[in-house]
Design goal:
Elements (H helix, E strand, L loop, with lengths): L2 H11 L3 E3 L11 E3 L1 H20 L15 E4 L8 H7 L1 H4 L1 E6 L6 E3 L4 E7 L2 E7 L6 H12 L11 E8 L9 E2 L13 E4 L3 E3 L9 E3 L5 H6 L1 H7 L6 E10 L14 E11 L4 H18 L7 E5 L11 E7 L10 E10 L1 H8 L2 E2 L3 E5 L18 E2 L6 E2 L2 E8 H12 E7 L5 E7 L10 E5 L6 H13 L4 E3 L5 H11 L3 E5 L3 H4 L1 E6 L5 E5 L3 H9 L2
Parallel strand pairs: 3-13, 7-9, 25-26, 25-27
Antiparallel strand pairs: 1-2, 4-5, 4-10, 6-7, 6-8, 11-12, 13-14, 14-22, 15-16, 16-17, 17-22, 18-19, 20-21, 23-24, 27-28, 28-29
Bound molecules: adenosine-5'-triphosphate.
Length: about 525
């Protein structure tokens, strides 16, 4: 089995993730977090909130920051006034291109279909696939053989031309074999598909009642900018953070939770003076990269990809993606964990004046055929007045926008290891271990009595109760202790505390470290502080 398959199976077996509505056959693109998964994802979100927002020290200038700054938070609704999405540009521009297969009636995202040119029996065709990277080769070979009515032993009759490329690089679809079709040329030309989920508010089901589920949390922050400035004492530079659900009707959700239709974002809109926005952009880009590394992602599997000039929106002077080498991607490819964008004053200006003409002139409001603004803004004054200098300006925005589910998945991928550990007889046995950083591990420690007698369970339960006041810990007295260790290794629990026969005499217990397998003897009275120190380092 490939590593990703093993991880997916572990996630299901140990209660990290389940397919949504599984007993009804599941719903593509929707995932539930099980008992361990909910703790892991909550810890990821809590670590983010603590490190970026509530634990932020606004009195000290952080390394790389142009000055001190403040941070605050918001929790906005998922359904907002429909005008929000018109002015933000999502109504007109938030789409992907899709292609439909006339034969199978399946729909694919244009840029996600990959394939290879191959020639046999005097005909050259482009065979496509939608399977995961590690089985692409096999799938394309199988389909090409089938198409040309060849047998596996005739593999040499297939003449491959070039390596895998995306369908976006193919201009004529007449020789394309769609991912699930058996005839050529069944794909339609690419068409736009808006990714926002529609719903209806109130009893009206017509256009007037139409609303959208938010495709990002950011807009709730922009439209509350004035409320926050007026109700709290924040002064520029400051950031507003929000964590919450977002929805995108992705055409082809895939790669486990990486691309889902319902997911959670952790976003910051950081408001600053236009003169210092470039410096703040660099600060946030580097700070966010460092955060993933501090929580355990290896720098070798992470890249910070600066967008090229022609990839940038008009209003942006810089955008960088933090990307991770997920094991389901082809060698050398990375998947986005977070985007950090310099957005200029685009968002506040749009919500003030109306949707800006992003394509031709980002400083001008888009006009409809009648010469009037196509989408009117709120008309509210979203400028900021600096009390010291009396200067009034529209703040610039730096937006670090992360996905909680993608971060959780990356931490799981990074943590998955198979190695050897001694069992209770000292024999080396293979084990699966999740080396999650103690801060995000779902269970911080497990407490075991070595055996279920001689007063050991009582002592162990007291330790469990003392720890439970501070952390999520687990008590287990069933089965051989070696098996109990293995179960905790798979759950990613960093420490196991064992009460043995000696403990009643020397008032000490053994703490076993999941990663180093080192066992140390610690006084029962010191267990809570010992675990506390280890978890917070
Ligand atoms: P992609 O190109 O992968 O579709 P994006 O560039 O559209 O992502 P953004 O709009 O920048 O993504 O969203 C910010 C973050 O939200 C992403 O970096 C990602 O972590 C998360 N995210 C976006 N779409 C999804 C999704 N469908 N499922 C899970 N997380 C997502």
């Amino acid at each position: 089995m490939m590593q990703m398959e093993k991880l997916v199976s572990l996630c299901k077996r140990r209660g990290y993730m389940f397919q949504s509505s599984e007993i009804y056959g599941g719903l593509n693109g929707f995932w539930d977090y099980g008992p361990l998964g909910v703790e892991l994802k909550r810890n990821v979100k809590d670590a983010w909130w603590r490190d970026m927002v509530s634990g932020h020290d606004e009195l000290t200038q952080l390394p790389g920051a142009p000055s001190e700054y403040e941070m605050t938070g918001l929790d906005c609704t998922i359904i907002m006034h429909p005008q929000v999405w018109k002015c933000s540009g999502h109504y007109d521009l938030f789409h992907d291109f899709m292609v439909d297969c006339r034969q199978t009636r399946k729909r694919y995202r244009h840029d996600q279909v990959r394939g290879r040119w191959v020639e046999a029996k005097g005909q050259k065709i482009f065979v496509t696939t939608m399977v995961e990277a590690d089985s692409e080769d096999e799938d394309v070979q199988r389909r090409a053989l089938k198409f040309f009515k060849l047998r596996s032993k005739d593999l040499e009759d297939l003449k491959w031309d070039g390596s895998f490329i995306r369908l976006t690089e193919v201009t004529d679809f007449s020789q394309v074999l769609a991912p699930d079709a058996n005839e050529l040329g069944t794909l339609t030309e690419p068409r736009e598909f808006n990714l926002m989920f529609k719903t209806y508010v109130g009893a009206l089901s017509g256009e007037e009642g139409t609303a959208f589920l938010r495709p990002e949390t950011a807009q709730g922050i922009f439209v509350n900018f004035k409320n926050v400035v007026d109700s709290s004492r924040v002064k520029i530079p400051f950031g507003i953070a929000q964590v919450g659900k977002s929805f995108r009707n992705e055409i082809t959700p895939r790669n486990f939770t990486f691309r889902s239709r319902e997911f959670e974002q952790m976003e910051i809109e950081f408001f600053c003076h236009p003169n210092s926005s470039s410096a703040w952009y660099k600060f946030w880009r580097d700070r966010r990269m460092a955060w993933y590394i501090a929580l355990g992602l290896s720098p070798e599997r992470l890249i910070l990809r600066e967008h090229a000039q022609d990839e940038l929106s008009h209003y942006s002077t810089g955008t960088a993606d933090i990307e991770y080498a997920f094991p389901f991607l082809p060698e050398g490819e990375y998947g986005e964990l977070e985007g950090i964008a310099h957005r200029g004053d685009f968002d506040l200006r749009s919500h003030m004046e109306g949707k800006l003409d992003e394509k031709t002139n980002p400083l001008q409001v888009q006009l409809g055929p009648d010469g009037k603004p196509k989408y009117r803004g709120s008309g509210k004054d979203l400028t900021y007045r600096d009390e010291l200098t009396n200067e009034r300006f529209i703040p610039h925005v730096i937006e670090p926008s992360a996905g909680a589910d993608r971060a959780t998945l990356a931490f799981l991928c990074e943590a998955y290891h198979e190695d050897q550990a001694p069992d209770e007889n000292g024999q080396m046995q293979s084990r699966v271990v999740l080396r999650l950083h103690p801060r995000i591990a779902p269970v911080k420690a497990a407490v075991f009595p070595l055996v279920k007698k001689d007063g050991m369970p009582e002592v162990a339960k007291d330790i469990y109760r003392a720890l439970k006041k501070k952390f999520n810990v687990f008590y287990d007295e069933k089965g051989a202790v070696g098996r109990r260790y293995r179960r905790q290794d798979e759950a990613g629990t960093p420490y196991c505390i064992t009460v043995d026969g000696e403990s009643l005499n020397d008032k000490c217990v053994t703490i076993r470290d999941r990663d180093t397998l080192e066992q140390v003897r610690v006084k029962i009275d010191d267990v809570v502080s010992e675990i506390e120190t280890r978890v917070s380092r």
